[in-house]
Design a protein that fits this description.
The complex is a heterodimer. Chain A is an all-beta fold. Chain A is built from no helices and 11 strands. Chain A is 0% helix and 53% strand. In chain A, the strands form 2 sheets. In chain A, strands 2, 4, 5, 6, 9, 10 and 11 form a 7-stranded mixed sheet that branches. In chain A, strands 1-3-8-7 form a 4-stranded antiparallel sheet, with no helix packed on it. Chain B is 0% helix and 57% strand. The chains are: A mainly beta, B mainly beta. Chains A and B meet through strand 5, strand 9 and strand 10 of A and strand 4, strand 5 and strand 10 of B.
Chain lengths: 116, 115
């Protein structure tokens, strides 16, 4: 299995530009999670989906952030407009969780975002 | 709601010595507990997990952890440290019922191995 795939691996953009991060979960997994990791705040859950439906988006910082999961094999995290404080590593993870599952999550390699 | 406390943001041990990384949790429902490892510039990799059953859990790379409900702890150990164990380690907790499945991570412990 290829694992969770994220693209791009690195993104450098200027403040005010739109940024789109992409994630392909492991085939057959029905839960998908977006995290942000920074030195100051550690690992934060932004949003997660179950069967393509957003379940909890309470971690999304503000309206500049949006996430979609149009089908079981693809998700995007968009920041518009981007700001320097959005600079972080963004991880996508997927889980085969079903009813009674153990919520084990498999992480992608991350996208390192730098906003100048 | 769940929370995790990892005691010690940095731990250094000599090669061949015992590794002990501490994790205490809080959960309003029976917890599922996890340890993840992160190597530089990589994503998180699952080391081991506790869901139900045996409280001593064995994982990859010789690591193990013991769930102690009375102490609300899930400490990670390895009898003999290798240089390749140098990484950051995260303890995480989730609930065991639908609606509580999201992982809450600790702040991480950076493990350094002294040659």
């Amino acid at each position: 299995d290829a694992g969770v795939i994220q693209s791009p691996r690195h993104e450098v953009t200027e403040m005010g530009q739109e940024v789109t991060l992409r994630c392909k979960p492991i085939s057959g997994h029905n839960s998908l999670f977006w995290y942000r990791q920074t030195m100051m705040r550690g690992l934060e859950l932004l949003i997660y989906f179950n069967n393509n439906v957003p379940i909890d988006d309470s971690g999304m910082p503000e309206d500049r952030f949006s996430a979609k999961m149009p089908n079981a094999s693809f998700s995007t995290l968009k920041i518009q407009p981007s700001e320097p404080r959005d600079s972080a590593v963004y991880f996508c993870a997927s889980s085969p969780r079903g009813t009674g599952g153990s919520y084990e999550q498999y992480f992608g390699p991350g996208t390192r975002l730098t906003v100048t | 709601a769940q929370s995790v406390t990892q005691l010690g943001s940095h731990v250094s041990v000599s090669e061949g010595a015992l590794v002990l990384l501490r994790c205490n949790y809080s959960s309003s429902v029976p917890p599922y507990l996890f340890w993840y490892v992160q190597y530089p510039n990589q994503g998180l990799q699952l080391l081991l997990k506790y869901t139900t059953g045996a409280t001593l859990v064995k994982g990859i790379n010789g690591f193990e952890a013991e769930f102690k409900k009375s102490e609300t702890s899930f400490h990670l150990t390895k009898p003999s440290a290798h240089m390749s164990d140098a990484a950051e380690y995260f303890c995480a907790v989730s609930g065991s019922n639908f609606g509580n499945e999201k992982l809450t991570f600790g702040t991480g412990t950076r493990l350094t191995i002294i040659p």
